[in-house]
Specification:
Blueprint lengths: L17 H22 L1 H4 L2 H19 L9 E8 L2 E2 L2 E2 L3 E8 L5 E10 L3 E4 L4 E2 L5 E3 L4 E7 H10 L5 E8 L4 E8 L3
Antiparallel strand pairs: 1-4, 2-3, 4-9, 5-6, 5-8, 5-10, 7-9, 10-11
Length: 186
């Protein structure tokens, strides 16, 4: 389409490998700049040339840093059996989950499931805990969650499942963290 003919130019589609082409273009521009610098050495070593070079270097670093940055949190998950204390009384046997943030940034806990064999998961509707899910865990701290073990065993045995289970914690960006495995008794 001709520009100025009164028609609107349609936006071009962005190819899938646009970032690769962008890096190739930057490399070509840097090669041209280096060729020019080799032929104009006296100008390069003047104060203006050094300043110009630093501006170009900053621009180059800025363009490279624009790539999508993926934030990966670091959570450690532990699953064990235990009981809760209510003053002088103890609860029934519980399945306890401890989620520790070993990273440097707060991480969101979006969900806790129990992974079974065959890529099956057991989801909890009413998981007890120090906080409700979803929640944030700060760096260097832990949060504990629990559910009654007998309910988990009844649910799994009704589905014909017995054996080892693992907890899976999903963070706010969808990264999954697995716990140690524990064997359920019948």
């Amino acid at each position: 389409m001709a520009i100025g003919s009164g028609q609107v130019k349609e936006p071009e589609s962005v190819p899938i490998d646009a970032s690769r082409k962008q890096i190739t273009l930057l490399n070509e521009q840097m090669r041209l700049l280096l060729n020019w610098l080799q032929h104009n050495k006296e100008w390069v070593f003047s104060g203006c040339g050094v300043s110009f070079g630093l501006v170009l270097l900053g621009l180059f670093r800025f363009l490279l840093s624009r790539k999508s940055h993926v934030y990966i949190s670091q959570l450690r998950v532990n699953m064990t059996f235990g009981m809760l204390s209510y003053g002088a009384e103890l609860s029934d046997q519980m399945l306890l989950f401890t989620v520790t943030n070993i990273g440097k940034n707060p991480s969101q806990i979006a969900g806790i499931t129990v992974r079974l064999s065959g890529n099956r998961h057991l989801f909890f509707h009413n998981l007890g805990g120090e906080r409700g899910i979803p929640c944030f865990v700060n760096p260097g701290t832990s949060l504990r969650f629990w559910t009654e073990l007998k309910n988990v065993q009844l649910t799994l045995s009704s589905q014909g499942y017995s054996g080892k289970i693992r907890a899976v914690v999903t963070d706010g960006i969808g990264v999954r963290y697995q716990s140690n495995s524990v064997r359920l008794r019948r």
